[in-house]
Amino acid sequence: MPRFTVHIRDEWLAVPAGTPPTPSGGSDKKLSNVMSPTFAVRRCQGLGLLDSDDTIDDVLEDNDFVELAIEGDTMSPDFIPYEPGVSHLLHVQYICLDGNSLTSTDLVNLGRGLYKIKLTMEAEKKVVKSRELLDTIVKENKVVYGITTGFGKFARTVIPVSKLKELQENLVRSHSAGVGNPLSPERTRMLLALRINVLAKGYSGISLETLHAMVEAFNASCLSFVPEKGTVGASGDLAPLSHLALGLMGEGKMWSPKSGWADAKYVLEAHGLKPVSLRPKEGLALINGTQMITSLGAEAVERAQAIAQQADIIAALTLEVLKGTTKAFDSESHRFCDRVQDAYTMRCCPQVHGVTNDTIKFVKNIINTEINSATDNPMVFAERGETISGGNFHGEYPAKALDFLAIAVHELASISERRIERLCNPSLSELPAFLVNEGGLNSGFMIAHCTAAALVSENKVLCHPSSVDSLSTSAATEDHVSMGGWAARKALRVIEHVEQVLAIELLAACQGIEFLRPLRTTTPLEKVYELVRSLVKPWIKDRFMSPDIEAVHRLLIDQKVWAVAKPYIDKYQTEYIPESRPISPTAFSLDPPASPRKRVRHE
């Protein structure tokens, strides 16, 4: 029997097709591709009915709007249909997590569903020893924060052993207080994978059974509903991580490729998984840490690195179209030239782009350190037989780094927008106004430039540091916080805007080339031009522009511009840049002359 889904007031309802009833509830959509388009609507949770006697009168009211999502039909943009037999992993490969060696690149690939997870044997041994110490503490009825006491302001309240399980469940439920749209499946995978990695260090007292349950949920892509708003970044990312844990407990909502959004309990059951049953301290172990900040930060730094590489290529193409010189600091460039020098946006790219690249490297080091840091409280040290309350949960490091990242990467868009102006302005480019023939009849890139300007202006507000703010919470117990969650989210927004501005510049530069034919630029830049033209035709007259911008934006996200140019860059570096050059007597390095710096982890 066909099964359909109805979306009513943000609630998904199962719709089995039955014997021909009459369409009800104000739905007048004709479904020409469905035989007997009649439905029996039942209120449900997940894939099961709440009450078999529920009728449409219990679900709909007069004039309710009903959205039908039917297999084979066009879906609502926020509805993910069930695709039988399709996994988020086309090729099953694994990354082994040990809590010490995960990188931001690995984490982003885990988010994309390119890998499943395994734990190393050494990590499992550490987890077991840590849990044994914690079980001893409970057995001996010792008073230890977060294990046998309340939390925050209630740290002095001792909890009876008989209620320790309830204590942990209450913690997760009460702290699941986030708001806003859910993280995407990709970002939720990153969040779950990172929490698994941190717990695998063996300093949180998690049981191996619970950690294995998390790994199984990740590998099945059973992902909790995690609202994007609600963390202040100390004590860790409590709200989002609580929502992550809530789904693992079989409560709240979950998503999987098999079920879409449904009740967590049903999603787990559909994949043969059982809800996690929390033991003493496990609720706290699941929710106390900086993994929301850090997982989003990992995506931010990887995307920043990708767009920074491609920004150099796009700037080079614009420089060619504007007939700029590559000898900006060579006195020879002033001979036989009607311009003494090019504008800053052309000759200062190495300085502006350079500091952005250095900042990305700096931030990436901090994010990779945080990825492999134990950020729980209290920490369980099995080898010393003790627990220690500390402050590793504070997100100041990644928060400050991501604020810095947003400021630095924004400059790529700031200087790009000025180059777009030079491309579009005939008095500066010696090209047709707004890069189109029959100006007046056609407007060309006029408003595309306005879009770039709008994005740059929006970024200026988003670059205000989030981490300079702090609000005291938890009855002044948590009296200084990092606001790192917002730092991470706005860094991603800034980077997306930068990608879009550079997409517009790349389109404009390719359009400029059309007016310079039959002249040709360098081979790698011609390859970039051909890549763009494989998706976007030249502008002969005005047309709908947004799809062109989106197509080139996708090229940049997928790093295809970099992939086209990289072989030529590698060859140039090999053939023309000597391995060692004389060092200027005025130059100095900030790095020590010895071996590479060791990564310091918070443990």
UniProtKB/TrEMBL annotation:
Major enzyme class: lyase
Q: Which InterPro entries match?
A: Aromatic_Lyase (IPR001106), Fumarase/histidase_N (IPR024083), L-Aspartase-like (IPR008948), Phe/His_NH3-lyase_AS (IPR022313)
Q: What is its EC number?
A: 4.3.1.3
Q: Which UniProt keywords apply?
A: Lyase
Q: Does the keyword Lyase apply?
A: yes
Determine the domain of life of the protein's source. Eukaryota
> Gene3D superfamilies given for it?
Fumarase/aspartase (Central domain), Fumarase/aspartase (N-terminal domain)
Task: Specify the pathway.
Answer: Amino-acid degradation; L-histidine degradation into L-glutamate; N-formimidoyl-L-glutamate from L-histidine: step 1/3
What would you give as a GO molecular function for this chain, any one? histidine ammonia-lyase activity
PANTHER family, per the entry: HISTIDINE AMMONIA-LYASE (PTHR10362)
User: Family, per the entry?
Assistant: Belongs to the PAL/histidase family.
What is this protein called in UniProt?
Answer: Histidine ammonia-lyase
